[in-house]
């Protein structure tokens, strides 16, 4: 806000300067008190709310009067913990979710940082600077989780310091590598301590933590956790004085269970609770909207509507320290206002952002133009780019120890569900000195080696689909490219095509490309609109489902390299047991 706007804002309530707009006859969902108020006017000057009260003194001839008879006004919805730095780009995201009421997101940047380094964060800051949806960011203090196995730290202390001081950076991104913090890794603790001194939030990731570990992590500095899967875990986090997020998105959707913490105890103070999807796939965004879906689901689960709205507005705003500008309908706040038919119907009829009506009946009045930067493999962080020109069949052969005709037992990733894996063993025959796949349920999994000159290859089972080659550069958390499949020629073709199109996903079967989804922004983000992106992903997903994958084959793929979740993962150094901290096969 410049000085003129600042002065005008002060003068409007006093009747010395006329408002640009006044909303009359609405009922206001007061997120500060949890009550609904009638008989108040909301006066707007520029992008801000200047006045809430009963006076007409700020209405002049040039003031636009908006009659909101029968409507309820709520502040725009805020996601306190997004992961919108991969998949859909922020511009298409705005076009899809703003008309359905999400007006602010605090999102992690660890993925685009792992993909592109500081260029990634800067690209996000630049892309979202002028967008109507307010983007705030978190920067990573510890990624990858195991640098000695997975590649160098995404951000140096100098780089981290530069970004943690940025005014739109509100937090340190989720501390998946909390083990590094409680094992007193000096690099990580120095970064977190700087965030503490700057009073930035630190996003926790206390999945399955014991009470003792959780206490230690709060001493580390975490201010929230979004990994609760039971009402008791929500209660425990609040008891210890950190904010608890009730997660409901594409990876996990736990509102049904988590909301019982509120419905079983109506007296419970809900100010320390927030709603977040954590992550939504493009398909789920198109189907469900974004935060509106969580508010609807919370209400369906029995959370009183105004409390559900508070958990998506003022609670995240206060948690993030941005309640002076968003989260409620009060003077000085941005005029980000939703017009609802009723508090129990959270889908807005109209959406106002920065004092302008930007959407009606779920449709945007003016779309933001897609103009995304491209970051092809030449721009990627070096650990993600092979030093060889192209993958060849021989890259994916696995030398046997046993003699030809014998069998060799090898450890494998056994897929349990979308995110969890466990250790299993299979016996594979040896032919021409190589281990051969002899079962439709077994696939090879080959990740670009930490030295970049070859692949670290292991085996997996339980994926469901028996396919030639599926290459990806999108998988969490360090986004090192890998390929799964049972045919080395197809694996090589899939990998090479994936690199050729600038990263993303390529599915090859029987020597033919069956589907591809380019992610030309660092190999992890599409520059296309949400509908096109979703269609490209669906072609691949459908092929995999028709060949036996159960649910979420691409989410499952994305988690095969995520060493932040149990138990067996592929890393650039080989097959890894995250619990015993051992490389099992390489
Ligand atoms: Fe998260």
Automatic annotation (TrEMBL):
<dbReference type="InterPro" id="IPR032466">
    <property type="entry name" value="Metal_Hydrolase"/>
</dbReference>
<dbReference type="GO" id="GO:0000034">
    <property type="term" value="F:adenine deaminase activity"/>
</dbReference>
<dbReference type="Pfam" id="PF13382">
    <property type="entry name" value="Adenine_deam_C"/>
</dbReference>
<dbReference type="InterPro" id="IPR006680">
    <property type="entry name" value="Amidohydro-rel"/>
</dbReference>
<dbReference type="Pfam" id="PF01979">
    <property type="entry name" value="Amidohydro_1"/>
</dbReference>
<dbReference type="InterPro" id="IPR011059">
    <property type="entry name" value="Metal-dep_hydrolase_composite"/>
</dbReference>
<feature type="domain" description="Adenine deaminase C-terminal">
    <location>
        <begin position="419"/>
        <end position="581"/>
    </location>
</feature>
<feature type="domain" description="Amidohydrolase-related">
    <location>
        <begin position="73"/>
        <end position="358"/>
    </location>
</feature>
<dbReference type="InterPro" id="IPR026912">
    <property type="entry name" value="Adenine_deam_C"/>
</dbReference>
<keyword id="KW-0378">Hydrolase</keyword>
<comment type="similarity">
    <text>Belongs to the metallo-dependent hydrolases superfamily. Adenine deaminase family.</text>
</comment>
<protein>
    <recommendedName>
        <fullName>adenine deaminase</fullName>
        <ecNumber>3.5.4.2</ecNumber>
    </recommendedName>
</protein>
